Task: inverse folding
């Protein structure tokens, strides 16, 4: 296999302890006041770790933060290039964009995606990563079913958004988030069957698929031609309780996640499956809020390299 570009999501750098701060809120507030200092340290750490690609995410590692720090996309691109870095993708967090569940939001959804895609094109990136809406807590009434009618509506939206961002040279890539409506193997198969492969791509997350009791390697093999990018992340075990799906759900999921090589994901199998995809050139290691990003990234790269041998 040709050597890949190693990348990471900027959420890797969201641990307040790395910044000498007490909480996530404190980090967000500090980063708003000091966007330049935030990005300088992130870029320096990435370069030191030998990780040359990055995925923008929610604040403080988002597009708006980069614009506050550098003024414009070309300036951000030059700062990255001076360290041998580049943006690979940007992730659209659910609370940071118009809700796909409300059909009347389509013009706002498209406008938001086009704004992000225009920025990505300017910095030389090609993937806009998003997810489908979250499920509701099991037992909620009236019940919310992820059925064919629901998935058809999501496919219709994805087609419009995918066509809009394609005009900027950007691919729309759907992420398999835990407790979302694109989580279980069946969800992924159904959505992929309903969407046009020329406009809608897949970003399987090895951890999240495993948390739903699925087989990440099997998913990757089934949908290999649709995978433009993937998140390499490990899981402790499938989520074995019904979580309350509200603003705390991401914190509830956290104990089930772990650093690469310390969980249940079949890394040699995953690496082999990834080698057969259009996204084979990038290994995006995801390490949510690493207390020591440099050490965690180096360890993750070592696991990924070993899996590819």
Result:
């Amino acid at each position: 296999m040709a050597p890949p570009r190693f990348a990471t999501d900027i959420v890797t750098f969201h641990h307040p302890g790395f910044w000498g701060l007490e909480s996530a809120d404190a980090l967000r507030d500090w980063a708003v006041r000091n966007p330049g200092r935030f990005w300088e340290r992130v870029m320096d750490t990435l370069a030191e770790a030998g990780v040359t690609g990055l995925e923008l995410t929610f604040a403080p590692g988002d597009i708006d933060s980069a614009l506050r720090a550098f003024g414009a996309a070309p300036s951000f691109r030059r700062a990255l290039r001076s360290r041998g870095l580049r943006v690979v993708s940007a992730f659209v967090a659910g609370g940071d964009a118009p809700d796909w569940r409300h059909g009347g939001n389509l013009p706002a959804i498209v406008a938001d995606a086009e704004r992000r895609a225009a920025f990505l094109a300017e910095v030389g990136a090609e993937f806009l990563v998003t997810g489908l809406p979250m499920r509701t807590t099991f037992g909620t009434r009236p019940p919310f079913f992820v059925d064919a009618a629901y998935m058809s509506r999501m496919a219709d939206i994805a087609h419009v958004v995918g066509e809009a961002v394609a005009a900027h040279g950007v691919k729309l890539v759907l992420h398999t988030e835990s407790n979302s409506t694109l989580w279980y193997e069946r969800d992924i198969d159904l959505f992929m069957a309903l969407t046009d492969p020329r406009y809608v791509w897949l970003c399987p997350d090895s951890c999240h698929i495993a948390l739903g009791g699925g087989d990440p390697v099997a998913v990757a093999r089934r949908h290999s031609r649709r995978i433009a990018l993937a998140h390499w992340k490990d899981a402790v075990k499938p989520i074995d309780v019904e979580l309350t799906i509200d603003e705390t759900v991401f914190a509830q999921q956290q104990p089930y996640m772990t650093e690469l090589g310390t969980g249940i994901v079949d890394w040699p199998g995953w690496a082999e499956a990834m080698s057969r995809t259009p996204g084979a050139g990038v290994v995006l290691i995801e390490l949510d809020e690493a207390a020591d990003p440099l050490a965690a990234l180096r360890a993750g790269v070592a696991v990924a390299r070993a899996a590819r041998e």
Q: What stands out?
A: The mean pLDDT is 96.
